[in-house]
Amino acid sequence: MKTAQTITTFALVITNTIGFIPQHPLGFGLRFSLSSTLDEADINSTPTEESASIRVPLKNLGPYPAIGLRFPNLATSAQRERNVTGVSLDFVVDTAANINTINAQVAQELLLEKVGTAPAGVGAGGALDGGETFLLGDIELEGLDEEPFTFMTELTASALQIASPASAGLLGTAFLNCFEGGVDFSWGQVEEGEIIEPPSFTFHGEVVSVDSSRPRAKIHSLDTTLLPSVTVNINGHEMPALLDTGSPVTVMNSVAAKVAGVDVVDLPTTETNNPFTKVQNNMKIAKAASRGEVLQIAGSDGPVNLLKSISNVDFCVVGDESIDFGANPIFVGDLPGLAALDGIGADSSPAVVLGTDILRKRPKMLFRGQQNEVYF
């Protein structure tokens, strides 16, 4: 039972990791205002009129990078009874979601104003129905020692039928692309058990110079969805990869695995008329799951298995120079959401979802959506 609960929880989370892919680009009526200094020695920043960068804590909700936001004008039912306002929520920052999302129960509790409807789309597990779009209004950043200030206004998010249990919702490229200078993900550095640099986000309202030692890769926006894709090299073979900070694991489809010569664990089949054999095979699958060799996600046409590679694979991102991420294990599975990369079916092209398990192998990642580039 314990193993089954673990598999189910992961299925609910990873179904949202590729994010929401509407059938056409959307506008969000979001206005951006950022004015602060950035002290490299201090994760907390003080608003001024001199700079356009600010750094705040990156919260690790399990494997998911999240940010704490405060909504000064919103209130829960208990707060409304006391005639007070101010709600703090955590949102996963997801480069592979092109729409901001919010848990429908959270939207209901906060009595959010409906301002529109998002069309149907695609998640990692397959097709997703559309959802109502709500106005969250003004937001402030959590984690600052100084007096809070309005960071953004008129933020909107859409409620989908599948909610992520990790946070109140997702902030996708609709949020990230508001920052002309990009958003820097710093995963944090720990040496001998001591925190050398805490995890953080740095938001750049203006383009700033980048350390010449940080390699750059080109981002290719996918057709229709406009989601960010980079070219990766796996075992010497180049293929497109969805840049996905909302996915805790890196996944390649079966075509890509065949091209790159990636072998996976052998998983017994459950398609048998013999009930005893079926029980034995289910037990073997449960044991493999407890060892982390198989992950199961909920798909629109039934569960989808992701199988772990038997050995580590050499992984690089193709940029101005080869950006080495070392040898890593990787999962193989035909996610329905890989349709965004034309990655479904025996005749499909090789396709990869580049998740945080590999992205975190380098200390930082500067995502510049407006310039279609990423620095590591």
Secondary-structure-based class equals: alpha+beta
CATH class of the largest domain: Mainly Beta
| Rg, nearest Å | 21 Å
Provide the helix percentage: 10-25%
Give the count of helical stretches.
Answer: 7
Task: Compile the SSE list and pairings.
Blueprint: H1 2-14, E1 31-32, E2 53-57, E3 59-61, E4 64-71, H2 77-82, E5 87-93, E6 101-102, H3 104-109, E7 113-118, E8 121-123, E9 126-128, E10 131-141, E11 152-158, E12 169-171, H4 173-176, E13 182-186, E14 189-191, E15 194-197, E16 200-204, E17 216-218, E18 220-221, E19 228-234, E20 237-243, E21 251-252, H5 254-260, H6 275-290, E22 294-299, E23 302-308, E24 313-318, E25 322-328, E26 331-332, E27 352-354, H7 356-359, E28 364-368, E29 373-375
Parallel strand pairs: 5-12, 20-27, 21-26
Antiparallel strand pairs: 1-11, 2-16, 3-4, 4-5, 4-10, 6-12, 7-10, 8-9, 10-11, 13-16, 13-28, 14-15, 17-29, 18-19, 19-20, 19-24, 21-27, 22-23, 23-26, 24-25, 28-29
Briefly characterize the structure.
This protein is an alpha+beta fold. The chain has helices at residues 2-14, 77-82, 104-109, 173-176, 254-260, 275-290, 356-359, and strands at 31-32, 53-57, 59-61, 64-71, 87-93, 101-102, 113-118, 121-123, 126-128, 131-141, 152-158, 169-171, 182-186, 189-191, 194-197, 200-204, 216-218, 220-221, 228-234, 237-243, 251-252, 294-299, 302-308, 313-318, 322-328, 331-332, 352-354, 364-368, 373-375.
